[in-house]
Design a protein that fits this description.
Radius of gyration: 21 Å
Structural class: mainly alpha
Number of strands: 0
Number of helices: 17
Order of helices and strands: HHHHHHHHHHHHHHHHH
Distance between the termini: 35 Å
Largest sheet: none
Length: 424
């Protein structure tokens, strides 16, 4: 049954990223239809991240209080509504409003899903579980340009009152609602209450998570442990938002590609992330089992990913052929996504009882990056072109690598028990 839970979460992660990044593929079309420049489009994209960043901790804590079953059901329904509303935008203000609603509804999604995983996944497979679900999210990224681009072309061919890009948002929003209904029907907050769970699966679940009562949240100790991880997540998130927002526009602007071609090349670039997430999660768990050292195993994966990603962005500053750009972006995205599963595994490692709250704290860094990255990057593209925005992204990856080198993830225990270091 554990495999079915992970499969449902994989589908959710794929749909959630399809919902939040379909605007990038439709970006050139939307900018033309609504008469937006790059700065205005960046504002619309970043609007998602304002409630997303501010409500991460609250959303994760709320998911713990009400349970992942009900919480993710309502989250899925509401973000489907927000996606449909995006397709009916008539200008910058309505587009920003729809994106704000999407960020509000998705704020609790991944922290709550992390809480669900903590209750079903053995602790020594945290990295693998996070790698698999985030690989699914990157599969949604990679397939998104082809799906959304295909829907836009198909929708335009229908010659209805709705434009092709509007039809694409309508259909993808309905898909979110269908997933929410399947989740409500299939999932249980406590594995022992599920009729199809096996005795072997129950024996592997962390014993502390079998308690009905939730321990009081140690906010100060969680903050002290998670803050450096959130800083790293900010640098990672800044560059991820560059990939999720600007690659279609970069390919269109620099190489003058039509929709069918820039959608294909964007998908090629984003496939690197699908592989990177799975490899990063498996590598992180392998190192932890082999060394027994939480700090070094998690730090090693982060350093390889961050440094590798920044090195492969460097060619974009000097070479301007489509082949070089595609190869550099693909490999940079692969290395960047090595970090993702590890960042999400750390809250499960150090605070399994409060993994929703802890992962919300961590993912606040990503949310804040999502507020500033699209706006700053878009404004710089309008004013100085593409080189300087990519250069700043390289610098932020370097800064994140420095913080990853010195951070010390520690196991946080319930109130009344002293913290015990996991890292040696």
């Amino acid at each position: 049954m554990r495999g079915k839970v992970l499969l449902l979460l994989c589908v959710m992660y794929a749909i959630s990223y399809l919902d939040r990044t379909n605007i990038s593929t439709a970006g050139p079309t939307i900018m033309s239809a609504l008469h937006l420049n790059a700065t205005q489009f960046g504002i619309a994209v970043s609007a998602f991240s304002i409630p997303y960043a501010l409500l991460q901790v609250f959303g994760g804590n709320l998911g713990e209080r009400f349970g992942a079953r009900k919480s993710l059901f309502w989250i899925g329904v509401l973000w489907g509504v927000a996606t449909i509303a995006t397709g009916f935008s008539i200008g910058l203000l309505s587009l920003v409003g729809a994106r704000l609603l999407l960020g509000l509804t998705e704020a609790a999604a991944f922290p709550t899903a992390t809480s669900a995983m903590s209750r079903w996944v053995p602790a020594d497979r945290n990295g693998f579980a996070q790698g698999v679900v985030h690989s699914a999210s990157r599969l949604g990224n990679a397939a998104g340009p082809l799906i959304v681009g295909g829907l836009i072309i198909w929708g335009n061919s229908l010659h209805t009152v709705l434009a092709g890009w509007q039809i694409s948002f309508l259909l993808i929003g309905l898909l979110s609602v269908v997933w929410a209904l399947l989740w409500m029907w299939s999932y249980r907050d406590r594995p022992q209450n599920h009729p199809k769970v096996t005795k072997e699966e129950l024996s592997e679940i962390p014993r502390e998570l079998e308690r009905a009562a939730q321990p009081a949240t140690p906010w100060r100790r969680l903050m002290r442990t998670i803050l450096p991880v959130a800083v790293v997540d900010f640098g990672y998130g800044w560059v991820l938002w560059v990939f999720l927002t600007w690659i279609p526009t970069f390919l269109t602007d620099t190489f003058h590609l039509p929709l069918s071609k820039y959608a294909l090349f964007t998908s090629v670039v984003l496939v690197g992330g699908v592989v990177g997430d799975t490899v990063g999660g498996m590598f992180a768990d392998f190192l932890l089992r082999r060394t027994g050292n939480l700090r070094n195993s998690r730090r090693t994966v982060l350093l390889v990913g961050l440094v590798g990603s920044l090195l492969w962005l460097v060619p974009l500053l000097f070479a301007h052929t489509l082949v070089v750009a595609t190869v550099s972006l693909s490999l940079s995205f692969f290395f960047l996504e090595l970090c993702n599963a590890t960042l999400w595994a750390i809250p499960m490692d150090v605070a399994p009882e409060w993994s929703g709250t802890a992962s919300g704290m961590m993912n606040t860094g990503f949310g804040l990056a999502g507020i500033f990255s699209p706006i700053v990057f878009g404004a710089m593209v309008d004013s100085v072109g593409w080189q300087w925005p990519f250069g700043i992204s390289i610098g932020l990856l370097a800064l994140s690598a420095v913080v990853a080198t010195v951070m010390k993830p520690r196991r946080v225990l319930p109130r009344g028990v002293d913290d015990v270091a996991v890292a040696r």
